[in-house]
Specification:
Blueprint lengths: L19 H12 L4 H17 L3 H27 L29 H25 L3 H29 L3
Helix pairs in contact: 1-3, 2-3, 2-4, 3-5, 4-5
Length: 171
Amino acid sequence: MKPIQLDLPYPPLDCIGCDFKSAKIIFPAYTSAHGELTAILQYIYHSLRFGEQCDGETARVLTGIALAEMHHFKLLGEMLIRLGVDPVYTAGLPATPFNFYSTGAVCYSKSVKKMLMDDLSGEIYAAESYGKMLCRLCNEEVAAVIARIKMDEELHVQVLKERMNALFCGC
């Protein structure tokens, strides 16, 4: 299984150094309710549900997107370390014992349409969030990585729309 992502390289992280301001801007993409960790868990869950419903093609698509989100999650974690922040699984920065990550934001839908709508909504939100981050980031190296991740999220929107058309429009 291959990740569903653009066939473009990701910018290197080599030149990224300590920058708490940038870390605070990108941290929500890591483990917030709408971050990459939530997306990974939701896609795996939905993939399992589609597999159970004998829709192997949609299950494969969702797993492929989950793999891309795992790569984004790893990139964000590596950037956070370079930016001088511990990539702990909290809901935000600064990390405190009371704001640890929760799976409460994972959409546990069981309806085929609802699962795909939840996933599509999440991808649209992610692409928009990365766009907003780009407007706030002054660190060009971090911005380049975020822009590349945003391109994958926009591809996921397209892929999910195509899958929905195939399932619900008979196209």
